[in-house]
């Protein structure tokens, strides 16, 4: 292997591992803040966050050990530098597992937001399939690279890397587009509510854009130039980008600690509507959230063609806004549980 190839691989790996360590530090701060602010979150969600922290911690540890062996322990031994060590390629499985876990989390959100039953299952099924395919091919790519053992031979498995990173990127884009589309359907014309929905859409776009663009760069550089600077530099921080994106979404909610005001954001629609006991009005779609201060209800909708203006202060924990009749479907989503 030419010395320039060694510099390309290990120099880029060192920079990539440093970047991954920086992202890991940010993620640790997010995890610490999360457990302090959201003690009432469901156990499975806390377990997901803790599991991601464990996996990312293992990745950082093995990355540091791997680069130490090549640049310190085996310094100057060119024969050893040509071959891959047992811990060098573990970043592939770590990245695949982390991306699958995060994508499944957002697949659940898409499932709960999708209004139509058939579309809900089809769309979620496509997302889950893409996620599982990228996980499977990540494992295949790692196993094949261990068989080759020599860095320069990794280009023989470029087709597997294309499928792995391509499916993962496509999954992220599909999640972001789906969430933005369905969230936009819940706009009410009420400024405060629309501002909240716009914020959720922005988080969805950021989550999908950061990871998908990084994976596309990683895929393109590997396909064009093989296992060299561009690919190696970008691949290491990807797992950390997934975890920080997830925690950023979870932190977009208000605190649900015992001393903080309750934060509930619920989008729901009932097929055929329901009747409010106090007014006899039919409600087709409801947005429910907890304001931090006293607020007012701009209007209530008796029917799609009649609007009655009202200004009534609301001091309760939960503000209900009734909306015009929309598509008949059944869904219920709560941001307090991380569903939106």
Question: What key phrases describe this protein's structure?
Answer:
340 residues; alpha+beta; single chain; two-stranded antiparallel sheet; 12% strand; 4-stranded antiparallel sheet; disordered C terminus
The helix-and-strand class reads alpha+beta
Strand content: 5-15%
* Cα-atom radius of gyration: 24 Å
Continuous helix count? 9
Inertia-based shape: globular
Average pLDDT figure? 76
**Biggest sheet, open or closed, and with what strands and sense?**
4 strands, antiparallel
**Portion of residues within helices:** 55-70%
Low-confidence stretches: 260-340
Q: Give the quaternary arrangement of the chains.
A: single chain
What's this model, at a glance?
With 340 residues, this protein is an alpha+beta fold.
Can you walk through the features of this model?
The structure is a single chain. The chain has 340 residues and is an alpha+beta fold. Helix content is 61%, strand content 12%. The chain has a four-stranded antiparallel beta sheet. It has a two-stranded antiparallel sheet with strand order 3-6. It has a two-stranded antiparallel ribbon with strand order 4-5. Helix 1 (3-37) packs parallel to helix 8, helix 2 packs antiparallel against helix 4 and helix 7 runs antiparallel to helix 8 (229-235). The longest helix is centred in the N-terminal third of the chain and has 35 residues, at 3-37.
Please render the helix and strand layout as text.
Elements: H1 3-37, H2 43-73, H3 78-81, H4 90-113, H5 117-148, H6 158-184, H7 191-225, H8 229-235, H9 238-251, E1 265-275, E2 282-289, E3 295-296, E4 299-303, E5 306-309, E6 313-314, E7 319-323, E8 331-334
Antiparallel strand pairs: 1-2, 1-8, 2-7, 3-6, 4-5
């Amino acid at each position: 292997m030419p010395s320039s190839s060694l510099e390309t691989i290990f120099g880029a790996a060192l920079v990539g591992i440093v970047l991954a360590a920086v992202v890991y530090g940010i993620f640790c701060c997010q995890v610490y803040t999360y457990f302090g602010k959201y003690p009432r979150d469901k156990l499975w969600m806390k377990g997901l966050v803790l599991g991601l922290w464990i996996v990312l911690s293992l990745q950082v540890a093995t990355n540091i050990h791997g680069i130490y062996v090549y640049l310190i322990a085996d310094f100057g031994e060119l024969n050893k530098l040509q071959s891959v060590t047992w811990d060098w390629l573990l970043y592939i499985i770590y990245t695949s597992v982390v991306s699958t876990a995060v994508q499944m989390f957002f697949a659940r959100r898409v499932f709960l937001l999708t209004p139509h039953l058939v579309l809900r299952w089809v769309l979620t099924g496509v997302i889950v399939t893409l996620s599982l395919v990228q996980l499977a091919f990540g494992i295949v790519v790692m196993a094949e690279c261990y068989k080759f053992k020599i860095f320069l031979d990794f280009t023989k498995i470029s087709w597997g890397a294309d499928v792995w990173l391509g499916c993962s990127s496509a999954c992220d884009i599909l999640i972001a587009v789906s969430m933005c589309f369905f969230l936009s359907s819940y706009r009410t014309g009420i400024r405060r509510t629309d501002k909240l929905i716009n914020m959720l859409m922005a988080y969805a776009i950021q989550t999908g854009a950061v990871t998908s663009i990084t994976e596309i760069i990683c895929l393109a550089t590997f396909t064009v130039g093989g296992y060299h600077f561009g690919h190696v530099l970008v691949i290491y921080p990807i797992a950390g980008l997934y975890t920080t994106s997830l925690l950023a979404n979870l932190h977009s909610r208000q605190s649900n600690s015992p001393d903080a005001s309750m934060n509930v954001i619920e989008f729901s629609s009932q097929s055929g509507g329901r009747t409010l006991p106090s007014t006899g009005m039919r409600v087709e779609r409801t947005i429910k959230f907890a304001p931090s201060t006293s607020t007012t209800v701009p209007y209530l909708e008796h029917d799609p063609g009649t609007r009655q203006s009202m200004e009534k202060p609301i001091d309760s924990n939960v503000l209900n806004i009734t909306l015009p009749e929309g598509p008949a479907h059944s869904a219920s989503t709560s941001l307090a549980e991380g569903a939106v």
